[in-house]
Amino acid sequence: MPNWTLACATADIEPDDLIRFDHGSQTFVIIRSEDDTFHALDGICSHEHVHLCDGLVMEGQIECPKHSATFDYRSGEATRAPACVNLKTFPVRVQDGQVYIEI
Ligand code: FES
C-alpha cells in the first residue's frame, strides 16, 4: 500500500524553486519546476551532509550550496562532481492544490 504523506501546498513553492520538508527523521526537498511539475528527493547532498534546501534550482537541476555539485531533480542522477552518488527520488502526487509524496 502506498503511503502518501502531505508535504505542502502547491502555492507554497514558486516555479523553479524548492522547499525543505521534514518527516520523522527524514529530510526531503520538494521542487516545483518551471513548467509546474513537482518532484521530491532526498534533502541531503550525497557528497557531504549538507541540506539541499539552500541550493539553487535551474534548468532541471538542483545545485548543492556547498561545493556546487548538481543533480537532475527528475531522476536524482548526480550530474556534476564532486557528488558521484545519485539522490533517491520519491513519487509525487498533486491533488486539490496539495502535494503528497510517497515515503
Ligand atoms: S556537500 Fe554537496 S557538493 Fe559537497
Mean pLDDT: 96
* CATH level-4 homologous superfamily: Rieske [2Fe-2S] iron-sulphur domain
Poorly predicted runs are: none
Instruction: Name the structural class.
Output: mainly beta
User: How many runs of DSSP E, i.e. beta strands?
Assistant: 11
Radius of gyration: 13 Å
> Strand arrangement, largest sheet?
2-3-4-9
Please give the domain count: 1
Q: Any idea of the CATH topology?
A: Rieske Iron-sulfur Protein
**List of distinct ligands in this structure:** FE2/S2 (inorganic) cluster
Instruction: Assign an overall shape.
Output: globular
| Tally of individual helices | 0
Main sheet overview: 4 strands, antiparallel
Q: Given this structure, which CATH class is correct?
A: Mainly Beta
End-to-end separation:
11 Å
Fraction of helical residues:
under 10%
Share in β-strands:
over 45%
Order of helices and strands: EEEEEEEEEEE
Describe the protein in words:
By secondary structure, the chain is an all-beta fold. Helices cover 0% and strands 47% of the residues. The protein has a single domain, classed as 3-layer Sandwich (Rieske Iron-sulfur Protein). The chain is built from no helices and 11 strands. It has a 4-stranded antiparallel beta sheet, with no helix packed on it. The protein has a 4-stranded antiparallel beta sheet with strand order 5-6-7-8, with no helix packed on it. A 3-stranded antiparallel beta sheet has the order 1-11-10, with no helix packed on it. The chain is globular. The relative contact order is 0.25. The mean pLDDT is 96. Bound molecules: FE2/S2 (inorganic) cluster (FES).
